[in-house]
Amino acid sequence: GENVEQHPSTLSVQEGDSAVIKCTYSDSASNYFPWYKQELGKRPQLIIDIRSNVGEKKDQRIAVTLNKTAKHFSLHITETQPEDSAVYFCAARGAAGNKLTFGGGTRVLVKP
Amino acid sequence: GAVVSQHPSRVICKSGTSVKIECRSLDFQATTMFWYRQFPKQSLMLMATSNEGSKATYEQGVEKDKFLINHASLTLSTLTVTSAHPEDSSFYICSVLSGQIYEQYFGPGTRLTVT
Questions:
Q1: First CA to last CA across chain B, in angstroms?
Q2: Which residues of A touch B34 (CB under 8 A)?
Q3: Chain B residues with CB inside 8 Å of A36's CB?
Q4: A25-52 burial by CB neighbour count: b if 16+ within 10 A, else e?
Q5: How many C-beta atoms lie closer than 10 Å to residue A73's C-beta?
Q6: Distance (Å, whole) CA B13 – CA B85
Q7: Which of A68, B38, B39, B94 could make an S-S bridge to B107, C-beta 3.0–4.6 Å?
Q8: What is the pLDDT of residue B30?
């Protein structure tokens, strides 16, 4: 089955700096890659996603890039703010079925 | 995105008792719902896929007789943790598929504590 690795596990950045989280996946047939933000005790919230026929997608301060050849995708957060502090999860969905496989998560701390 | 509710948000039960958690899709009919479990500081682990009108599909290692799933309608799926033990204490979250590319939207979660 699919295996998703996420790095780093923790990330501390100064407010205003950029944050980058990277994920790799194992199933070359995976075609959908969402990113979720989870605050303590809350539900994961979909913040951006990308399909396998697109190389990059941007939404205001967040962007996601996908390299299908290398089987990795990344989340970029620019001009970080304290409210960006949370745990971020990447995920991948294979071609068969609609199940998501999640990465291990990245705890992001934005220091004011 | 889809609007998903869960009830209860928190529950404390004694070891050996059963607990039922409800997941509702409030703004559309969901033929498929997913149940996840999340331990502290860990990722989301898929427990089972709940299909309306048919049996749930459980992930490897998840005991189907212990975690009973019923998806009797297009807006409601329930997870019953039977004979709960302290090691079942966790954050249980459901999700639904919605949208043109079947995005997953999560419920607010249920924190189960077994004493």
A1: 36
A2: 99-100
A3: 106
A4: bebeebbbbbbbbbeeeebbebbbbbeb
A5: 25
A6: 9
A7: B94
A8: 86
